[in-house]
Design goal:
54% helix; 16 helices; BirA Bifunctional Protein, domain 2; 4-stranded antiparallel beta sheet; 5-stranded antiparallel beta sheet
């Protein structure tokens, strides 16, 4: 060993062994240590095989920042050549490239070459110099920080002195409060003595009130007896009045039949009786103001088919000659539905499916209101959710205005003409007396998808964010309230007092009543913004007229409107009014 082919020995300064270190970046920490050992060992052994030198030992160290290998080769091969001579001048770079290829399966790649990165090796002296300079900078920074800390200590000392002065002031204040506490305690004892006297007086008053209550009970018993006697007398009078009404009704029926025959109102009378709920109808007029020509709705009116026929001439003239349109509302949630603006194809589809309408009203060329009725076996009405879902289903299947999907929606009363178009169009009623309810509503309900029922339930249970000043009321509603008031006063139709001046309180009531009457069928949460706006406007009017308690005035007016129109909302109780 140690001699080449020419039997020359190695040089005296030649080292017999060559050691090395294989290091990685911090990414090596995420690699499994067993895989790292396996691939690293193979890579080092591959170097030995490539350069035909013997690997003496390999070790994997994990005691520093990243795992790394230490290894040692024999420096001479079998031919006596040194490992370094085989590597050449760029031997380290070759080894880096070799290891990079060998460890690719673990996701490693070799580092950036020196000629690209520009990295330079630092010797020990240079690194020590840099460390000393860095230490000097840190010492200077610490000295600056010490000066700042001294300044803060001085400021803190001043603050502590100020706090000490405040402490003395607080101690003196506490002593004064202690004196005041003792004075209050003496006052409390005095009040206890006075309370005992007042308690005795209260007991005497209670005894007097009990005595007065017993007297009032006796008076109330006498009043109840008088009321019972009056009610008995009233019952007798009502019985007599009923007999008179029956006699008059027989005469009225003869007059009514004569009017039906004279004007050919048989179909209209049959239609009204079919639509009526327990003999009652709900009609409402829609018109325009005289000055502003803004549309408005009058208060809904409960009537009967007979009363409607009796007033037929007036209704016909208003629907034909003026700008008033009379409408009909469906009462309750019976299985009676109206498809609004349905075309002839929709009517034919209804008849093919066995849902023939019992009446149609042509409101414009080719557009109809179709009245349909279903059977119910064990009950008279549907629930609101069922009614809403039923109506949605019919609109989806046969067409029609989706806006009509609400209980209490207004449909044109088939008398005279409709002013929706210019010129007005005659409303043509056609009644099909043989169209009896053939389809069971409960059976058809089972065909309605659960999604439609859920949507109806969400719609009826929806809640709204309410602004107490009424600012969330629709813009048209806010404008309409002001214009109605101005129009009523300017028209000369406003109520007046005995001295001839306008009765503003009556005007406020009329305007609020008329504009809110169109919302009689709405849910309370839909009404609240409108009521809040009316309340705000009434308060403003009361303040302009310098009323003593504007809030009291507004609440009493709103309560009166709720009573008159029978709005579905709770009145504000008297206990909530200003005192």
């Amino acid at each position: 060993r140690g001699k080449n082919r020419q039997h020359q020995s190695w040089q005296a300064n030649t080292k017999p062994f060559s050691s090395g270190v294989l290091t990685f970046s911090e990414l090596a920490n995420v690699v499994d240590i067993n895989e790292l050992w396996e691939h690293g060992l193979k890579a080092i052994q591959a170097v030995g095989e490539k350069y035909k030198i013997k690997v003496l030992w390999v070790a994997l160290h994990t005691d520093e920042t990243t795992p790394h290998f230490h290894y040692m080769f024999e420096n001479l091969d079998a031919a006596g050549r040194t490992f370094q001579s085989k590597l050449g001048r760029d031997g380290c770079s070759k080894l880096q490239s070799f290891y990079g290829e060998a460890l690719k399966p673990l996701g490693f790649r070799r580092g950036i070459k020196k000629k690209l990165s520009g990295a330079e090796h630092q010797d020990v002296m240079e690194s020590h110099f840099i460390a000393r300079e860095k230490a000097k900078e840190e010492v200077k920074q610490l000295e600056d920080d010490q000066d700042i800390l001294q300044e803060k200590i001085g400021a803190s000392t001043s603050i502590l002195e100020g706090l000490s002065d405040k402490k003395g002031a607080l101690i003196r204040e506490l002593e004064a409060l202690e004196v005041e506490r003792k004075n209050l305690r003496r006052s409390r004892d005095e009040m206890h003595r006075q309370t005992a006297v007042e308690k005795a007086e209260t007991t005497a008053l209670q005894q007097e009130l009990r005595k007065r209550r017993d007297e009032l009970k006796g008076q109330l018993a006498d009043i109840i007896k008088s009321i019972e006697a009056a009610e008995k007398d009233k019952s007798l009078k009502e019985a007599l009045a009923m007999e008179v009404l029956k006699e008059n009704a027989q005469e009225d029926e003869a007059f009514l039949q004569e009017k039906i025959d004279r004007y050919g109102l048989q179909d209209l009378y049959c239609f009204l009786n079919r639509v009526a709920h327990h003999g009652r109808l709900w009609v409402q007029a829609q018109g325009k103001t005289f000055y502003t020509h803004q549309e408005y709705w009058d208060e809904p009116k409960l009537t009967t088919p007979n009363e409607t026929i009796s007033a037929w001439r007036d209704l016909f003239e208003q629907n034909t000659c003026s700008e008033t349109d009379w409408h009909l509302r469906i009462l309750g949630t019976r299985p009676v539905f109206v498809l609004d603006d349905i075309d002839t194809d929709g009517l034919e589809k209804l008849r093919r499916d066995g849902l023939a309408p019992f009446a149609t009203v042509e409101t414009s060329p080719g557009c109809y209101h179709a009245y349909i009725e279903f059977k119910l076996k064990d009950r008279e009405e549907l629930t609101p959710i069922e009614w809403n879902a039923f109506n949605s289903y019919l609109i989806q299947q046969y067409g029609g205005d989706k806006g009509a999907n609400a209980a209490g929606h207004a449909f044109r009363l088939p008398i005279g003409s409709s002013h929706k178009y210019d010129p007005p169009i005659e409303l043509k009623l056609q009644v099909f007396e043989d169209a009896e309810p053939a389809v069971d509503a409960d059976v058809l309900l089972q065909q309605i998808s659960p999604q439609i029922l859920e949507k109806a339930e969400r719609k009826l249970n929806r809640r709204y964010e309410i602004q107490f000043d009424g600012s969330d009321a629709p813009d048209w509603f806010q404008t309409n309230w002001k214009k109605r008031r101005e129009d009523l006063i300017r028209s000369g139709r406003a109520p007046v007092r005995q001295n001839g001046t306008v009765d503003d309180s009556a005007v406020d009531f009329i305007v609020s009543r008329d504009i809110l009457s169109a919302y009689k069928d709405k849910r309370s949460e839909r009404l609240t913004p409108m009521l809040n706006f009316c309340h705000c406007m009434l308060c403003s009017e009361a303040e302009l007229r310098q009323k003593a308690r504007p809030e009291d005035y507004a609440i009493r007016t709103i309560n009166a409107v709720i009573d008159r129109v029978q709005l579905p909302i709770k009145k504000k109780s008297e206990s909530e009014l200003e005192i």
